[in-house]
Structure formats: structure tokens, C-alpha cells
Amino acid sequence: MRIYSLRLLFIIIFSLLFTGCWDIRQPEEAGIVIGMGLDRENDGTIVVIAQTVRPQQPGAGGVEGGGGQDPKPFHNWYATGETVFDAVRNLSLLSPNMMFFAHNQVYIFSERLARGGVLEVLDFLERDPEIKQSGWVVIARGELNDVMQSSEFGQQAPAQMLSDILSLHPRNTKYAPSTLADFLQALNTPNAGAYAAGVTYFKGVMKDQEEMSRTTAEARRPYELRVSETAIFKEDKLVGWFNPMEGKGLLWIRGELQQGIIVFPFEGKTLSYEVFGSSAKVKPLVKDGRLVMSIEIKARGNLGEASPGIYALDEQRLKEMEKSLGQAITEQINATVNKAQELNSDVLGFGGAVHRKFPQQWNKELGAQWNDIFSNLEVEVLVRAEIKGLGLITTSVNPRSKQ
């Protein structure tokens, strides 16, 4: 019995020591996808672009001899298919490595695909267990291929650059981003609209490093990425864009603006207000038999800059400054509401607020008529903005006042 037990113990130990992961993928054998582009051709064929990291060889890096540079740190693989899954599998006809999507950071939809409807490509993104739901959804203005090829001097993959830019969005707040999970949830919410960040490309100011030896006129400038607008959807179709002012208003209404800069006029000067917190209350009211949406915003922040300067500031002037700031925020919110009603897309979440406040009336009639109601809904905006601090100074330097 003792010998049998020892044999069994040895078998278990050796089994643990020599058992490996049956589905392990070595880094050099896997195509690590960091960006996924989706488009649709005129005949309905689905296009998938998988941006993979190019493995760096030991000792690689720096500029090669003869003035050339190392290859770009990424590679774009293109495939088509009748469905997204079909196109993804067709990537294996081109790539020697199996595509690995678990590290994907951005899903870039072409504007053409978005305007025609994204319904056909969503099922795979929601169903496949390897798809990362926390990745960003981005809509490419212009050609998808150009966006996925743009990179500052080729030192960083465009998908990685996009992910890094979007991760910093709380500091800018000129557009409203969505992760894939948030985007899918918004699309699945009745009488609501989804939104996502928009990306475009432009010719940069700086010259490419490999072109530095040429004259300034001859040196080419690489195309760089810019995220500054918000794509607005109705059902599964892109219907329009919010500019930076309207995108900021969307964040105010949804209570998601906790940082950022508000530039506003005051007594002929231009002031910058740094937000460090805000709250929003969206409440449906009934006034004289009319449905009215009330938006209450509370903002807290510091004075970050006064141009050309403030030379006398007392309590009364501070209150007047806060009033001007409140008017500027109100204008942003009103611009957003007007644009959303023009596009007839309830990305503002008004329908959800009405449903929660008046569930019986919603189920009886309001829900079925919401598209018509929303486009003509009266909205009241109340903003209370507080300037908590003035920075390191209370009076700006004024060399012109010297005698």
C-alpha cells in the first residue's frame, strides 16, 4: 500500500512538472493586434485592418547607417470577407502568425461604414471572447487607411498613439469618448443615442527625421493624428458631429466633465478657468401641461489665466467673473442641446430621465412619440460656477503702469 502511494505521488509530481499550457502562444509566433480598423466596400464586402506590433530584434533601435531609419514599429494587415469573422480568418492568408486580439486598444470605424450603419459588424465584436470590451471606439474622418498609417515620424504605432491620446481626454474635454462596452450599451438602450470620438489626420509642422538633410522646402512633413470632434449616432448610423464646444457641453450634461479648461470673456479680457469638479442634475418637469427638461450644473475650479491680466480683484468683481463664467457654460450646453435636437439623437439621456420620472406615461405614450417630443423639447439651464482659487497671485504684473 505504501509503495502504491509513493508511485501515485511520483506520478502526480511528474505530471505537474511536465504539463505545459496547451494553447500557449509565444510572442514571436503571435500577431499582437493593437488596433482594428473596420470598413465596408461599395458592394457590401467587409474590410478588416489589423494593426500589429512589429517585434523588435535584440540590439535593434536607433538610426541605421547610411541615413536610413529602422522599419516602422507596426504593420497593417488587410483582408476582406462576407462578415467580420470571415475577414478576420482571411488575415491568415496573408500573415504567417495567428492574430491575437486580446491586447487590442482601439476599434476604428470608417465614416463610410458608420454612416451606412454599424449593425452588421457589431455582433462579432460583442460575441467573440477575445475581443477587449474596454478598447476605445473611434470614427475615422477621411480614409481609414490614411488614419491607420499616420504616425509622428514612425516612432509609435497609430493605434497606440490614439489610445494614449484618448486616455488623456479628461484633461482636454473637447470631445466625448466611448469604450466598446459603453458604445454597445448605448446602442442597445431604447430612444437613446450613442457617441464616439472622431479622429482625423493632418500634415504635421515638424519635418521627418530622415528628411532633415534636405532643404526645408524639400523635406516632407509626416501626417499626424488629431482627436477633436464627437461622432453622434441615431440607432446604429452616424448622423452628424459635435464640434469641440458641443462636445464639451455633452460632457457637462452627462456629469462627466471633471477636468479641463473653460475660456470665457470678462471685461474685455480672456480668462481661462480650470475645472476640478462638477455635477449635473437632469430633471424632467411639467409646467402648464408642457414637458420641460431642467439641467442644473455646479462647477468648481480655479482661475488659471487672465489675459492680459487682472490688476484689482475684490469680492464683487469675483462674483461678476463667476456670472460671466456661468453664462459661457450655459452657451456651451445650449449649443449642444440645439445640435442634438437638430440631429434628433438623444445622446443627452433625456429619454432615460423621463422614463425614470414618469414610467407609466412613458410606457403609455411618451416612449412611442419620443423622437418627435425630443426634437422640440423645451430645455432650461441653470449653472452655478465657483472660482475657488486664484493661483499664486491676486494681482497680475503690469509693467505699463510704471511711471
Automatic annotation (TrEMBL):
Subcellular location: Membrane
Domain Spore germination protein N-terminal: 23-195
Gene Ontology biological process terms in this record: spore germination
Membrane topology: Lipid-anchor
Descriptive protein name: Ger(X)C family spore germination protein
Keyword Mitochondrion part of the UniProt annotation: no
Organism for this UniProt entry: Desulforamulus aquiferis
The Spore germination GerAC-like C-terminal domain, residue ranges: 229-391
